[in-house]
Every structure is written in structure tokens, then in C-alpha cells.
Amino acid sequence: MSTDREAVVWTRLRGQPKRMGRLYVTDQECRFTYDDDYLQLSQPGLGLVYAPEFYGSSTISRQRREPFDLFPPIQSLIPPRQRDNFQRNLALKYLQLKQDRKFTQTDIASFDTDWEILMISGHGGIGHLDVFADDETAEHWYGHALPHELKEISDDLSFSLKQFMTWFEEDIDVFIRTVGPTPSVGGAIPKLLLSIPESGWDGRIGLPTRKKTPGVVDIVLKFEQTTRYPGIIELEMLALEMHREAGFEVPRYWPCFFKGMPAIAIERFDRDHNNTPLCSETLYSILASGIRLNNHYDYRYDLIAQAIDLSPVEFVSDTIEAKKYLFKRLLMAMLTGNGDLHLENLSVTCCNGVKAFSKIYDPAPMRAYAQHDMLSVMPFGEYGEMPDGYEETITLKDAVMRFAKSCGLTKTETADIIEQLILKTQDFSARVSELKTVPDENKRRLIEKTQAVRKKLQQQW
User: Fold this and answer.
1) Which of 14, 80, 284, 345 has the fewest CB atoms found within 10 Å of its own CB?
2) What's the distance, CA 413 to chain centroid?
3) pTM higher than the cut 0.85
4) What is the pLDDT of residues 236-292, one digit of tens each?
5) pLDDT digits over 12-45, tens only?
């Protein structure tokens, strides 16, 4: 049966809604064509690889193949087909109730369902792309938003999780039946897009902005799934502070409770001070637009550095600084126990024509949890491997040096960076020990693993 489909892509770059172009999907491929009017604006487009300056009015075509049925920047707007993904489960419940039907296991993992989810949740998300079924829906969504209102969180709050999806469609009754009077949080670390006072968290929340809204800042609200990741909010806050102290650009954040659940409100990196979207794209989306990737960790850090230098598409403006940043990010991740620095946790934003890595996000020290206890989710410097001509596997010392070289760093620069980051993180173990909500077992694991990394790095200099 044919799956030919059509949608429109809009954006609110520079503050005003504008249609970018039209999307077509057939059984074999997806296609996108920029509107002539949009091309005259000289704005960023569908993605850094699919930029208007490369394609103009010519139709862009891409064969459908796993894991991408759509262009990667658009595919990223659909929650992945994971049973424990909170956002996908909420969207599925919404669709089930709205359509008064049950989804089979086949339905849940089908492209038809992905498309339905895209039509209701493909706008207002992270980044600058908004996908709609048609122009009428887009114009209504942009033009008929309720006046922004901040409300106190309370048991009888009319706006909570049950109204979250009304950011996409105004159908509150469905939400009352879907979620009930209190949030039901499950699955992978749940996140909601909300807004709070610009001055910071004070217990009032509102829907995300759709236009310039003075006095309000858009945030990602992340909940702690205590049974699976106890203390993760405290750990993430510590990691954010460690990165800030090490010189990285970190968004503002506020610890909080949402109806009794520990949470953290983090200022969105993809919005400016006027609540206007910035052109943002993950490395996964950028790289998958040019090469075949099977998942968001199907790559090597060394190849990222190589791509920064050799890619025919410029996705960072300052290649030297970008490669140095990449080296420092991986080193900092190892020193703070974050083995989960994958391609979706590295993004590029474009602000005032300058493309650079975004502010830090999702730096949680996941090695505190046994199920995520790994040094690095992606290979670097052939660590643990035995290249041709070697009689022993590559040690951490050698791997760090090899990766630094691929990032264009001299031995002196490498030594200086390592010395600096070791110094900046010297009290990490002590600060982990002081955390209140992280179980002792998890603290011991994290301290043991990061101390081992520090020892190996200090031995080599």
C-alpha cells in the first residue's frame, strides 16, 4: 500500500513565522523543495547539509532506509521507537484516545504511527523546524495561541502534563483522560518543554512561547526517575557546575519539585533572549545527512574531528576552536563520569551567522549507574584496540594522545589542557560524596571510576 504523504515545513527564525518549503514522502524516498519566497530571505534551511545555498529551488531527494524514513533533521522531531520513551508514549496515548482505537505492537513501531506523531508534535520542539499537515494548521497554530500565562503548580492545576500536548493541539478533554490529575512519569528520563519567569523558577509554569514574550524564558523540565536513576538531578547539577567552572558555556538552571517529583529546569540552548528559535542541529542529524549511520553512537570521536576539517559542508565557523572544544568535552566527560557523550548530546547552533557548538546539555555522570558504566559510548584514539604493527592494545594514555593529534593539538597543548581540566575537577569526588539524594553505592561507583581515569591521566604527564 502506498505511503505517499505530504506536509509543510515552517520556521520562526528571526521571530516571524515563514513557510520554508514542502515535504513529500513516498514508499521509496522523501523529497523537499524550498519555496522561492523563502530562498529570498537568506536564512538557514532544513539543515546544515541541506542548506538553501546548496540546493536553491531544486528538489532535495533522499532514499528511505533504516533508521531514517525522513531527512535526519525532520526525523529528529519524532520520539524514537523505544517502549520506555516518555514523549512517544504520551503521544501514543493522545492518539489512541483521540481516535478511539488501540495501537497494536506493529502499529506502535510503524512509519504510519511516526507520521501521525510528527503531525501533532513536529512543531515547537528543540530546534528551528516546525512541521505541519498543511498551511492552514500552521497559520492557526502560530496565530491562535492563548495569551501567555504563568500558573502556580497545584493539585487542581488546569495546566500540567495533561495540557502539555495542547502545545500541539487544543483538546484539553483528551488530556484529562490521558494523563489524569497528576503526572504519570515513566520511561527514559522524561522531559517537557515549558516556560517560567525570566528571573528563574518560582513555582509558576506556562506553555512554551510561540512569539516574543517579555519576562518569560523557555526551559526544558527534566524529571528524576528515582527508581531507575536515583539522585540524577543532583548529579546533573554538579556536572553542569563542573563544566561551568572549567570554562564551558552552560545554560542557567534551577532545581525544583513538580508535584513532589525532583526536577531540574534548564534554559533552552536553542532560543535567544527574545524567545526566537536559533538554527540548531545535533551532530547526529548533521553527519547522518551525509553518511550512513545506524544510531547516535555509530561513529568515532576522531572522525568528528576529521569531518570538521574535511567536510564539504561547513558546520562550524572556527574549525581550530571546534576541534579543541571536542577534545576538551570528551576529556571532561571522562573526568566527570559521563560515558554517554554521543552524537545527539553534541549540537551546533548558528547565531548571527556564526556556527559553533551549543551550550552544554545532558552532561549527567551516568557511570554512577551500573547499566551505564562505560568510559565512552563511542571509540576514540583506537583505545583498547590493537592496530596493525602493535603488539599490545592501545592504552588510555596513547588513545588520548592519538585523539588529541586528530584534533590538531600539539603535545604541549594537550598536556596543558589535561593539566587544566584535572585541576578544575580536583574536588569532584568530594562534591559527589556530599550529594544528599544519590545512594552510597552509586557515589562509590562514580568516584572509583573517575579516580581511575584521573590516575591514568596524571601518570602520563
Assistant:
1) 14
2) 30
3) yes
4) 999 999 999 999 999 999 999 877 788 999 999 999 999 999 999 999 999 999 999
5) 999 999 999 999 999 999 999 999 999 999 999 9
Q: Which residues contact 116 (CB under 8 A, 6 or more apart)?
A: 95
CA distance 321 to 156: 50
**Helix extents (H) in 257-318:** 283-288, 301-310
Is the distance from CB of 402 to CB of 302 less than 8 angstroms? yes
User: Do residues 240 and 360 lie in contact, with contact meaning Cβ atoms separated by under 8 Å?
Assistant: yes
In the chain, which segments carry CATH 1.10.1070.20? 279-459
Q: Which residues contact 452 (CB under 8 A, 6 or more apart)?
A: none
Q: Say how far apart CA 397 and CA 383 lie, in whole Å.
A: 9
**Does a cis peptide bond (omega within 30 degrees of 0) precede residue 67?**
yes
DSSP code, position 122: S
279-459: which CATH number, 3.40.50.2300, 1.10.1070.20, 3.30.200.210, 3.30.1450.10?
A: 1.10.1070.20
**By the 8 A CB rule, do 126 and 280 touch?**
yes
Q: Are 332 and 241 in contact (CB under 8 A)?
A: no
